[in-house]
Amino acid sequence: MTQPFLLRLSVTSVLLLVAAATAAFGQIKPGRDPKQPIDEQYTRKIREYTTETFFNSPLTDYLPASPNVPTPKSVLGDVAGAPGKLPYSAEVYRYMRLLERASPRVKVFSIGTTEEGREMIAVAVASETLLAKLDENRARLAKLGDPRTIRMDEAEADRLVTASFPVYYITGTIHSPETGSPTALMELAYRLAVDESPYVKQIRDNVVTLITPVVEVDGRDRMVDVYNWHLANPGANWPSLVYWGHYVAHDNNRDAIGLSLKLTRNVLNTFTGWKAQVLHDLHESVPYLYDNTIGDGPYNAWVDPILTDEWQLVGWNNVSEMTKFGMPGVFAHGNFDTWSPGYLMFIAATHNGISRLYETFGNAGADTVERTLSADDYSRTWYRQNPPLPRAKWSQRNNNNYQQTGLLTSLHYFSNNTKLFLKNFYLKSKRSIDKPKNEGPAAYVFPADDPRPGGQADLLRLIQAQGCEVHRATAPFTVMVKAKKNGAKKETPSPAPSASPTPSSSPSPAASPTPTPKTEQRQFPAGSYIVRMDQPYSRIADALLDHQYWAPNDPQQDVYDDTGWTLGELGNVQVVRVTDVKTLTVPMERITSEVRAPGAINGNGSVYLINHTADNTLATLRYRLKEVAMEAAEEPFEAAGRKFNRGSLIIRKASANELQRAATELGVQIHAVEAAPIVKTHAIGAPRVALMHTWMDTQDEGWWRLALDQMKIPFSYISTQDVAKDSDLRSKYDVIIFAPVGRGTEAIINGMPMWGNALPWKTTTLTPNLGKIDSTDDMRPGLGYSGLMNLQKFTREGGLFIGTMDTAELAVSTGFTPGLSITRSTRLKAIGAVLRSKVVDDKSPIAYGYPEAVSIYCFNGPIFGVSNFASGRGGRPRREQRATGRGTTDDPDTVQGRVPVEAPELPTAEAWEAYPVLPEQRRNGINIIPVEFRPRVIFRYADSKDLLVSGLLDGGDEIAQRPMIVDVPTGKGHVVLFSNNPMWRGQTKGSYSFVLNAILNFDNLNAGRKLEEK
Ligand SMILES: [Zn+2]
What we know:
Blueprint: H1 2-27, H2 40-49, H3 73-76, H4 89-102, E1 106-113, E2 119-125, H5 128-132, H6 134-145, H7 154-163, E3 167-171, H8 181-194, H9 198-206, E4 208-212, H10 217-232, H11 262-274, E5 278-283, E6 289-291, H12 305-324, E7 330-332, H13 346-349, E8 354-360, E9 369-372, H14 375-378, E10 391-394, H15 396-416, H16 418-433, E11 443-446, H17 453-465, E12 471-473, E13 477-482, E14 519-524, E15 529-532, H18 538-545, H19 567-570, E16 576-578, E17 588-590, E18 600-602, E19 607-610, H20 617-624, E20 630-633, E21 637-639, E22 642-644, E23 649-651, H21 656-666, E24 669-673, E25 681-684, E26 689-693, H22 699-710, E27 716-719, H23 720-725, E28 735-738, H24 745-750, H25 784-796, E29 800-804, H26 806-813, E30 820-823, E31 829-830, E32 833-839, E33 853-858, E34 863-866, H27 919-922, E35 936-941, E36 948-950, E37 953-954, E38 963-970, E39 973-978, H28 992-1000
Parallel strand pairs: 3-4, 3-5, 5-8, 6-7, 18-24, 26-27, 26-28, 28-29, 29-39
Antiparallel strand pairs: 1-2, 2-4, 6-8, 9-10, 11-15, 11-16, 12-15, 12-17, 13-14, 19-23, 19-24, 20-23, 20-25, 21-22, 30-34, 31-37, 32-33, 32-35, 32-36, 35-38, 38-39
Helix pairs in contact: 4-8, 6-7, 7-16, 8-15, 9-15, 12-15
The protein binds zinc ion.
C-alpha cells in the first residue's frame, strides 16, 4: 500500500519542481550579461560574416571576452564559421585542449580511435563544481540507469534524482561533407565555459555538456583536403568526397544496429559509459534548422512512449524559442520516419536516453554563396510557419549561428527541467526491466544446438556490445513458446500441449484485443544462451531480435530507410522469442566475457573433418591455413558417428598443433578420424580475390570491404580504371567482386563526364589525406568498353565474376550472361526488407552448408528470369486463352464439319526454371544455349505467401519464386549474380557464406551439376 502513496508523492514533487523551474525560466532572458565585456573584434567578425541580422540570435551575435581563455580564433586565425576556414580534426582538438588548459570548466577525454588510427574525443563542459563531482554523479546516474541496484525503490530514485545532474551529449560532423559543426562546437564550448550571462550560467551550473566535435574523423580530414584543393584551384570543379570514412560514406549513420564501425562503438560506449540522458547528432542537409527529433510516423515500435513524448516536449520547445528570436526556417516534424534504429542518435533512443538530430543548412565547405531553394523547402506548411527564404546569401557563419542557438536553447530547456528528465531516465530504465511482466517478451533464447555456433556467438557478441547482459542455461529447460504455424516440428521433442500451458501471464489491467497466439512446450538444451528482457537495455535487444512489420498501406509512403533488420533471421542464427516468464527462473549464469564459439579438435586420427554449416569462420580458417591442402566433399557423408553436410572440408595432412590453435581461436570444431571418408571431393584453394570499385561511389562496396576485412579474407582493391587498362586480369586474380554501386550501367561504363578539368584523388602536400585507400590522377574515366571486354575475357579464361543488384544488371545488360534476363517491376516494394529464399540446387557449391530456407536482405530485386535461349527471353509461350467460339469458358472450340483435334499439351516450368526448348525451336537452334552454359539457379525467392519475413513487402508476387542467386558458366569461368545484397551493413552475416562458397569453389562451381536436357 505504501507504493502508490510514494508514487503519488514523487509525481507531485516532480510537478512542483517543474513548476518552480518554469517560473525561474520566465525570469532568465536570453542574451549577454552587460557587465561582462565582449570580444569586440570577434563580435564584429561574427556580424560581418552573418549575411542577415535575422540569421543570428541574441545568444550568438556577440562573444563574451575572457582575460585568460583563448577563443577559437587562436587556432583558426579567424572566428568560427569564417569564410575559407575549415579546420582539420587535429586543429579542433588542439583548440579543445587549449580550452581545457585555460579553463577549469572544460575537460577533454579520449574516447577511442578510428579505422585509420585517428583519435576521437569527448569534451565535457560544466561549472567547476559539477566537473569536480563527475565520478560521484556518474555513480548516481548508474543507479538510476539500472534500478535493479536500488531494488526499484522509488523513494531512493527520487533522492538520487535530486542529487544528480544530467549529461547532454552532442556529436558533430558524422557526415563529412556536412562541414559546419566542428567550428560551431568549438565556439559553443568557449561560450559554455566563459559566458557569465544568467542564461548560459544556468546551463553550466546544472548540466554537463559533452561534445564530440568530429565523429567521422577520417572523413573530416579528407573533406578539409578537398576543400583546400578547391581554394587552391579557383574556378575549377573539385573532386567529390568519394571516401568519407575508411569503409562507408553516408551509411556511417546506419550502423547503430550492426556496430561495425569504430565511430559507432566509440559513441555508444561514451553514451552508455557516461550514463548520458541525450544524444544530439548534428547534420546539415535541410534549410535552415530541421529538428527531426520529432519526425514523422511510423515511430520505432520498441521505444518507450515516455521517450516519444520527450521528443515532442524538447523538439517543440526548441522551435518555439527560435521562432521568438525571429529566425526563419526553424521547424520540426517533417517527413523523416523514425522507424529504423540504425541512426547514430538512436543509440540514445534504445538505451533509455533521448535521441535528437538537427539538419541545419551547410554549404559543404566554408564558401559564402547565394543559395536558391526548391519550392518543397521554402513552402509554408502547418509545421513550418516561418519557412526558409526562397533565395538567400548563405554563409558557414549563419549555419554556426543556427547550430549554436538551437543547442543553447535546448541545453537551457534541459537545465530548467533536469529533475523531470532524470526521473524519466529512471522510469524508462525501470520500464525496460519491467518488460517481461508488461509488454514482453520474457527473453530471447539462442539454443545450444544451433548448427552455426560461430554465427550465434557473433550475434551474441553484438548484443553484448550493445550493452546487454547475456546468460547461459546451466541445465536443460522447458518453457512455452509460440506454436509453429504448421504444427510442431520434429526437432521439438514436446508432448502435445494438452496439459494446461503456463499462461504467459500479463499483469496489465486490460485484456489484449488480439487473440493470444497458440503455444507449445519446447525444451532447450543446457548451454543455451538467454537474453533476459528484465535488464536496463532490454529495448535494444528486443528491437534487433524481434520481427518488423511495415504495413503497405501505412500513411507514410516515403520510406526513409530499411524496414526490416531482424538479426537472427539475417544472421542465419536460431533465435526464439519467449514470452513465458518461467524462462527467467531457469538455472543460468551470467556470461562475464565475450561470447565465443568453442573450438577444438575432437577424436583421434591424422585426417581432419570440418562440417560445413555455412558458418563464416570456415573461409577464415581456409585463408589462415593457406598452405594446407583441403578438399570439399561433394556429397554428404558420415564419419566418426556424425553426419557431415555437402561441402564439408577434408584435410589429409596438417600440423595438429597449428590446426588446434586455429580451431580454438576461430571457434571451429574439427573432427580427427583415422581414414578419410569415401566421397567425391574437389580441392579448395585460397583463391586470389579482387574487389573492384568505381570512382563515383564507394558506399555500398564499403560494407563488402569491411566484411572481408573482418573475416580476414585477403583481397586486392582495384578500380574500374585498373580493369579498363588490364587485358590480363586472369593472371592476377581468380575472383573479381563488383559490389553494388548505386549507379546505372551507363554511368559505370562511362564514368563522369569528361569535359571540365581532371579530378585528382591522390596524396599531395596540399591533400595529405587523399589517396591512401586508392588513388587516381583523374576520377572521371569509368570502366569503359575495354573494361567490359577485359572482364569478359577474365571469365572466359576461368575467372569468377560476382555481381550484385545493379552490377548484376550491368553483367546481364552487357551480355555476360546469355539466358539470364531482368524484368522491370511495376508494383514491387521490398524496401530494405528481410525475405525468405529457398534452395533450388543444393548440389551447387554456392549452397554448401545452407539449410533449405534462408532469410536474406532484399531491396527491390532485380527480378531475374532464366531461359535456354541466348536472347534471354525466348521459349516461354504466352498462357493460352481461349478464342471466341462455341461453348463455355473452359470448353474447347469446335470447328464445324471436322472431327475435333486437341492441341498438344505444352510443357510447364516453374518461375525459377527455364522453359524447355520445343521441337519447333530446335529446327535451327542458333540461339539455343548449349546445356553446359545455361544459367544454373542456386537459390530462389520463396513462394508469395511465405516471402515476407520482416519489414515492408508489397507486390511481392512479382519477385516470388524468381531466381535469387544464379551461376552462369562462360567459357572456362563463371558469372555469379545476386538479386539480394548478401553483404549489407554488417547485418547480413547469414548470407556471407553464399559469397564465400562461390569464392572458395570458384574453379569447381560446376560440381554436382546435372546436365540432362530438359
Ligand atoms: Zn547528414
